[in-house]
Amino acid sequence: MQDSLGEKQVALDATIAKLMSLVNDQAKENEARLKSLADTQNSLSAGQKAAEEQAKRQLELQQAAAREKEKEKNAAAMGQVVTTQLNSIVSEAMDECIGKEKKKKGSWF
Q1: How far is CA 89 from CA 11, 50, 82, in A?
Q2: What is the model's pLDDT at position 97?
Q3: In this model, does residue 109 exceed pLDDT 70?
Q4: Cα–Cα–Cα angle for 64, 83, 97, nearest 5°?
Q5: Separation CA 57–CA 49 (nearest Å)
Q6: Mean pLDDT of the chain
């Protein structure tokens, strides 16, 4: 009977050792999964941050382009004003010159 108890104790110890080994293996597997999930989450967070930075840069570029377009529009309008003023000055000068020429010609005849 004692041999039977000894054999049962050995079998029980072996079973316990096997279960402990399985528990340890499962714990290691769970730890590896958690690390993988944490790495994935960190990667996703970094990707999200990079996407947010890209969106911010894109918005800044769009705003800069809009400002440049407005500057070009203002420069074109200013150019039209200057051209109109110059045309007016040239027209007045030509009228003045023509008037002087008419007076000269009138005095010759």
Answers
A1: 115, 58, 10
A2: 84
A3: no
A4: 165
A5: 12
A6: 91
- Which amino acid, 39? D
Whether the model pTM is above 0.85 = no
Interior/surface letters 50-76, b for 16+ CB within 10 angstroms, e for the rest: eeeeeeeeeeeeeeeeeeeeeeeeeee
The span from the CA of 56 to the CA of 50, in Å, is 10
In terms of Cβ atoms closer than 10 Å to its own Cβ (0-12, 13-18, 19+), residue 78 is exposed
Q: Which residue has the higher pLDDT, 4 or 34?
A: 34
CA distances (Å), origin 78, targets 37, 44, 74: 61, 50, 6
Mind spelling out the 3-state secondary structure of 52-81?
Answer: HHHHHHHHHHHHHHHHHHHHHHHHHHHHHH
Angstrom distance (rounded) from CA 48 to CA 42: 10
For the stretch 52-96, pLDDT in tens is 999 999 999 999 999 999 999 999 999 999 999 999 999 998 888
